[in-house]
Amino acid sequence: MKWTSLYFLGYAVFMVGVFMALWKFGVLEDIGSTWTMILVLLTIGIGVMIAVANGGRKENITVDSH
Questions:
Q1: What was the pLDDT predicted at 21?
Q2: In terms of residue numbers, what domain contains 14?
Q3: Total domain count, the chain
Q4: Cβ distance 13 to 53 under 8 Å?
Q5: Three-class secondary structure assignment of 3-16
Q6: Does residue 66 lie in a domain region?
Q7: Which of 12-16, 40-44, 56-60 has the lowest mean pLDDT?
Q8: CA 34/CA 32 separation, integer angstroms
Q9: Percentage helix, strand, coil, to 5, in the chain?
Q10: Residues with Cβ within 8 Å of residue 7, at least 6 apart in sequence
């Protein structure tokens, strides 16, 4: 779990680079601001899912009730 935030941070930096490249090439202007925001939300959601899936060991917690 300790690497999940670092993994997501790296993914976020990568996606910022991708969006900056798309902006520089004029792709984001062609698709409009609404679709750009939809793409941003989708990439953040995918990043969260990947970060959680690769977040470390999955353990079961048992609770003793007496």
A1: 92
A2: 4-53
A3: 1
A4: no
A5: CHHHHHHHHHHHHH
A6: no
A7: 56-60
A8: 6
A9: 70, 0, 30
A10: 50, 51, 54, 55
Confidence of residue 24 (pLDDT cuts 50, 70, 90): very high
Give 52's pLDDT tier (boundaries 50, 70, 90). confident
pLDDT at 1 over 60: no
- Given CA atoms 26, 27, 31, 33 in this order, what sign does their dihedral have? negative
**Is 61 part of a structural domain of the chain?**
no
Q: Are 3 and 55 in contact (CB under 8 A)?
A: yes
Tell whether 26 is covered by a domain: yes
Residue 63 lies in a domain: no
